[in-house]
Design goal:
This protein starts with 5 loop residues before the first strand and ends in a 14-residue tail after the last helix. It has helices at residues 17-28, 88-104, 126-138, 140-146, 162-171, 176-183, 207-211, 227-246, 260-270, 279-286; strands spanning 6-12, 31-36, 41-45, 51-55, 63-66, 69-72, 79-82, 114-120, 204-205, 215-222. It contains ten helices and ten strands. The strands form two sheets. The protein has an eight-stranded antiparallel sheet. The chain has a two-stranded antiparallel ribbon with strand order 5-6.
Length: 300
Amino acid sequence: MLNTRFGIEIEMTGITRSKAAEVIADTVDGTKHYIGTYYDTYGVTMPDGRVWKTTSDGSLKTEKKVNGRKITANKDYSVEVVSPILFYNNDMESLQNIIRALRKAGAFVNDTMGIHIHLDGTGHTARSIKNFINIIASKNDLLYDALAIKSDRQRWCKKMDKHLVSEIKRKRPQTLAEIESIWYAGAIGENRTAHYNSTRYCLCNLHSFFNGHGTIELRGFNSTLHAGEVRSFIALALALNHQALTQKSASSKKPQTENPKFAFRTFLVRIGLNGKEFENCRKHLTKHLEGNSAWKYGKD
């Protein structure tokens, strides 16, 4: 479950892109350099050759603190930290150290910001992609509530499209090409290969899989500079990916959730986030939900 390669993008403000790159370089013993491009990007090359980037995003509300008060800042304070390819067991400590260092340097987040996690699509088949679609669809409401997706960000991470799910069920596609055609059916007149194709703006983005870097992108995470929360998001993404890959089939039917906290906790356990190792992850991922995590109908 934890062996899948991934990348993460974390949006923030409070410090400039140049400063963020400097902080990352100091944390990983890397070398900062200016890349440029339309996104005014800085890079940090690690000793092993992998490169972190700090780039701009026009959708972010940029701010900085002056005398402890947040005020509007210029576009230099639009910061999206883009990781290189990471491995959970090898890189989690370093990632968490970077997050803590950025927060200490003055970075913070606001309601316009999110976290995107890209999962390596290698090994996915038509079966596993259908599984992924159905798993996300069945947990649409629970995921939105558990992740407390803010209204300002919902246009960038929409729920799994009901028409897409019904078409997958009706047509029973057997190849990735057939699923791709269904995925883009609603984007009439748009170029499938365009980076900003409208289908990308959903919680589970398969545009990046079909016509991007071959990754499955999960976009439903509010940005945070809490290292434990970021670890929890990554663990959830990896567990969902593993479930899609290994499960024979998955239903899009929504479960009964009279006790959302219990329902989501048991789901997390079922997909592999069980035991002491993931105790804090389960706490972070269920803390926004109502109900009792230990008792389905409440303790007598």
